[in-house]
Specification:
This protein is an alpha+beta fold and about 110 residues long. The protein is built from three helices and four strands; from the N terminus they run H-E-H-E-E-H-E. It has one domain: Alpha-Beta Plaits (2-Layer Sandwich). Strand 2 and strand 3 form a beta hairpin.
Length: about 110
C-alpha cells in the first residue's frame, strides 16, 4: 500500500537557476524514429528533470532546469539543429512559483 516516502527539496537553494515547463511538437515525418531519437536525447540531458509523452497538438511535456534563459536557448538550439529529432515546435513556460506540492505521486 505504501509506495514510498519523500522530501521536498528547495531546488532554488541547491541549484539556483530557471525552472521551465517545455512543450515539444515532433514532425509527422519519420515520426516513430524521431520520437526514439528525441527520447534518447532527453534521457541523456541532465537539464531535463522529467519528460512525459502527451497528446496532440504537442508530443512531449518536459520539466527542465537551466542556469538561465541563455543556457536554455543554447541547449534547445542544438536540439532544433539536430535533423534526427524532427522538432517542429518548442514552447517554454518559465515557472514563477510552486502553488501546490503533491504529497503523493500518481503515475
Amino acid at each position: 500500500m505504501i509506495r514510498g516516502y519523500g522530501a521536498f527539496i528547495d531546488v532554488q537553494k541547491v541549484s539556483p537557476g530557471l525552472s521551465l515547463q517545455v512543450l515539444v511538437a515532433i514532425s509527422n515525418q519519420n515520426r516513430r524514429t524521431a520520437q526514439k531519437a528525441f527520447e534518447a536525447c532527453v534521457e541523456n540531458c541532465p537539464q531535463v528533470l522529467e519528460c512525459r509523452l502527451i497528446g496532440d497538438p504537442f508530443d512531449y511535456s518536459l520539466r527542465m532546469r537551466c542556469k538561465d534563459m541563455k543556457h536554455y536557448r543554447a541547449l534547445t538550439e542544438v536540439w532544433l539543429e539536430n535533423e534526427e529529432l524532427y522538432i517542429d515546435k518548442l514552447v517554454a513556460y518559465p515557472e514563477l512559483a510552486v502553488v501546490k506540492h503533491s504529497s503523493t505521486h500518481c503515475d
